[in-house]
Amino acid sequence: MAADKVFRDERRLLALENELAIAREIQASTLPSGVPEIDNLCIYAAYRPMTAVSGDFYEFLPVDPKRLGILVADVSGHGVPAALIAAMMKMAVKSIVPCAHSPGDVLQGLNRMLSGQPRDQFVTAAYLFLETRNYLARYSAAGHPPLLLLRQGTLQRIESNGLVFGVMPEPGYPVCDIPLGPGDRLLLYTDGVLEPQNAGGESFGERRLEQVVRKNQSRPPAELVAQVLSEIRLWQPASLAQQDDITLIVIDIL
Q: Lower CB density within 10 Å: C or N end of the chain?
């Protein structure tokens, strides 16, 4: 009887692992397969789930060779419940493609599409629209960490936040216009970059992220991302696994 119980438990565990593997494949299919080619932009994106599935989501909305929208979102919590809502984002994004040029309308539309989610599951998001024809960016966010702009060695935090998704049916999302120039660097990320803690319980935080960005400003986007992830791993105790889902996107203006 004991052997039979062990056998049944192992079968259930194997079935669960198979289901998680399928869920991971499905979620991977909802994420971009690559980075779009846009004139005068160099982009690198990193996505690191904490577990088999993630509550982070990102998407590129190319309009033409000179205009691109970039969405980053983070569902509260972890694992399968957060991943299911993240998967809903993929369907919601399809409905806002016609207004990709308008960050406020994009966030309004996503909030409406996700208004039926459980009340204890909230979503933060940031949306950046880039026009390389006239070197202009438009940015808006929903309770998300600030956009970082590195320009000639000076780092700026750009916040243009409205409420997280799911709090009100029609909240307002302020939009910030950002003039750009060759050499500028922009960073979008989720709070999984900021929240990892060391053995003393101190978070990695915005200050350390900014230090890494400044020290590596001459490196290309892929190398900067690799350095940020390396610094986060070193900050955490070696005995601890990754503490949150991580998404980081670096955009260089050429």
A: N
